[in-house]
Amino acid sequence: MMNTTANGRQEHQNRQFKYIIIAMLRLMSKLKYTIIVSPLLVSFFFIRTAGAIDDVNINTPAIHNQISEVTLDKTPEKALRAKESFFSSADLWGLATAYRIAEVPYESSEESVSDFIPVLIYEKDRFYWHGTEVGYKVSQYDNWNISLFGQYRFFDIPAEFQSDERGNAYDIGLRYQANITTDLDIDLELLNDTSGRNHINLTTSYHWQRGNWYLNPSITLRYKNTKYNNFYYGLGIDSPGSDIDIVLGSQIRYKLFNDIYLFGQVSLTQFGSDTYQSSVIDTPNQSDILLGIGYLEDNRKKKTRYLKAKPYIRLAHGSATPSNLGEIVILNKDSDRFNNKMDSFFLGIPISDTLFNKDIPVYFTAGVVRHRESVVQANIPEYVMALKGYYTFSGPVKIRLGIAEGLSYASRVTYIEQTELEAKGFRTSRLLNFIDLSLDIELSDIFNNRHLKNIWLGYSIHHRSGIFETSSAFGRIRGGSNYTTFYLQYHW
What we know:
Blueprint: H1 2-30, H2 34-50, E1 62-63, E2 70-71, H3 76-87, E3 92-103, E4 112-124, E5 127-130, E6 133-140, E7 144-152, H4 159-165, E8 170-179, E9 184-193, E10 198-206, E11 208-210, E12 213-224, H5 226-234, E13 243-257, E14 260-270, H6 273-276, E15 285-298, E16 312-321, H7 325-329, E17 341-352, E18 362-371, E19 380-393, E20 399-410, H8 415-423, E21 431-442, H9 443-447, E22 455-465, E23 480-491
Antiparallel strand pairs: 1-2, 3-4, 3-15, 4-5, 5-6, 6-7, 7-8, 8-9, 9-10, 10-12, 11-12, 12-13, 13-14, 14-15, 16-17, 16-23, 17-18, 18-19, 19-20, 20-21, 21-22, 22-23
Helix pairs in contact: 1-2
């Protein structure tokens, strides 16, 4: 009798979820978003109806925790891996702020350049996001792995020129890492910038930890091909040709208390003789230092911890505004005279139930945004990655405040952003800092209907900015864009 009741309740929940998915698909078809999002939603529906997230019965189809494909293998091991992938804590995650200062090696009146850097850290299975680097381990074994990754590489020219040259400091490539011993690694990196200029790094590093201290000293041989070295160390003026640099460095971390850390990084680069003899280079070596403080939760050596927080999907629609973030928060918002609109889809994966030991669930969230065509712009896609936390105010009606911090990349700059930056005399940047502020309520509290539980109606601010000219990664610009949106968010 109890099994019959449970099965009936499960079937009822599945029907509810099906109706929600169908409604979302219909909405997205009107938004011309179905091609992008439908496969994800169909996968979520299959997982949900298969019972892979049911705490009682896990011997059902599930998502493989590493390659994210639906399988019909009804083994407890596979289903357990599905729970670990979607409902367990992240292997490693954190939020920090850092300040970097580096010598300018070029002939210039400026001797140094500095950057403010928001640092977000997230590791889960094979995917990782470490501040300025994002990657995926395509092959992973006990003593070696291969990663596909992208990174922002600091190009330490004087700050006044960084807005024009920043786009040439993005690298993509492959890394082979061999674990020689528990404490000793060797890395081989093959990298290309966005214009096909390549360089190769061979690094040996050592891991040392005692008490609250962690050190990671390293030595790197960096080969730069002719095209790379002529561009970055000849600046179109001289042609030093290919060369090899030597880089000595170390990462440092100290645990202050709980999960709060001080961290730093130092390095000294000895340029090859051909590079140093370039007419634009002023010094045979270059040093840089980075210091920061942040929150870091490391679960890599802990037993898998299942979370109360549930994954979510969010659909939003909103409008551009010329008002700044502060004006929107105090409800002093102006309308965009061209009525530019945006639609977005976000997926949220829980990584922790708490922040600073408070009941604040934290999510890794990724989203696709479509800026609609208007009289002043074409359709523009935007892609977002962020960490987001939620705090719920208790009462007769639950109200939830959400704050996200991350990165946003737009394939083209929107009209509302371009006009603001041009008015201030700044060049636009496709990559910017991202902030999402949201306030929502659970519909089951409003309509007193348990069938609407886990569905939230909310209002959010979609914000892109350059952090007040403090970061070369964002083009040293002041300003950005704001959109206000209404959304539905479903936790399953």
